[in-house]
């Protein structure tokens, strides 16, 4: 059962990378997502090109004056890629630069990244609902992927370390 969950996690991580890459494309391009704009309160462009779509806007929201124009979608690509790598390490027991990480270390790293991603995603859902008053379908898909990832990581961790 554990390996099946890892393969589902790998599938989710790849979906997360693809979704994040599409959002990064929309963020940097001049084009808009017509699909998203025709769904009531959904406006992917408003959300994905708002000040909150980059770390600078989020830091400003908390009163931190620091210029860090990294889009959240790029952070998603990075986080999903790291989690994908950890899953591959857990399945294959690969050494990195001569060091073999213990399963406990890898599960802990996966859990921490999953929790951070989940909390960050919840904050962005709050921003969409209460600040921007608009929804991004592709952002919500990413939030669902993050939630499923967190649930599966908890299942794996509890199964391995009872």
Please tell me about this protein's structure.
It is a single chain. The chain contains seven helices and no strands. By secondary structure, it is an all-alpha fold. It has one domain (2-160): Up-down Bundle (de novo design (two linked rop proteins)). Helix 1 runs antiparallel to helix 5 (72-92) and helix 6 (103-132) runs antiparallel to helix 7. The mean pLDDT is 90.
Count the domains.
1
CATH 4th-level superfamily:
VKOR domain
Order of helices and strands: HHHHHHH
Computed over alpha carbons, the radius of gyration is 17 Å
CATH architecture: Up-down Bundle
| Sheet with most strands | none
CATH topology: de novo design (two linked rop proteins)
Strand content: under 5%
Which CATH top level class fits? Answer: Mainly Alpha
Look at the structure and give the mean pLDDT: 90
- Alpha-carbon distance between the termini? 15 Å
Number of helices: 7
Uncertain regions spanning at least 5 consecutive residues: none
Indicate the percent of residues in helices: over 70%
The geometry reads as elongated
Class from secondary-structure proportions: mainly alpha
